[in-house]
Fold this sequence. Notes:
Structural class: alpha+beta
Number of domains: 2
Radius of gyration: 25 Å
Shape: elongated
Strand order of the largest sheet: 1-3-2-4
Number of helices: 4
Low-confidence stretches: 1-38, 185-192
Number of strands: 4
Strand content: 5-15%
Largest sheet: 4 strands, mixed
Amino acid sequence: MANAVWLTPKPRIAPQGGLFVYTTVPSTRTFGTSYGPAAKVEALASTAEGKVRLKELDDWARPRQEQLAKLDKEVNDLKNEILSKQGTVTNDALAELNRQLVAKQREFEDKQRDGKRDFDQKQQVLLRELGGKLQQVINEYSAQKQYTAVFIFKPDDLAYLDPAADITDTIVNLYDEKYPLAAKPASSAPAK
């Protein structure tokens, strides 16, 4: 008889894959096999620490997104100005507006590329830190439940899995117990 245990995907983050848990569980009558998907990233986002750290990452990114939106507006304003002044100003004036436009577009692209690189780096550090902790929780829980392996899996490849086999909340609760949020000390100056 096959029993399934799994971590369910949460709607906040929708990665392309998760984990696949394959377990062998001793039984009084027979040895059964248990398996099921475990969506690790969604579980991270569900922990108390994950929620706080993802919000911090979002707070870090927000001013950069606002700056990009401002630059994008400036690029569009310059484009509109060039269109509206065609035929009414000298070619030199249009050439100057085009130089300004190209410079503003380059600034936008540079800031967008730098922001994406910085965000990706911060996100990878965050996922590595939290993922390592979550992996410890999964390893301990798996050992306790006598699971034999955890594999990467894509949710779309699974036709059916009994919802009663969902262990997401258990893993999240175990994570929150093992790694409770520490109260932040009052800082005298905000981090830059």
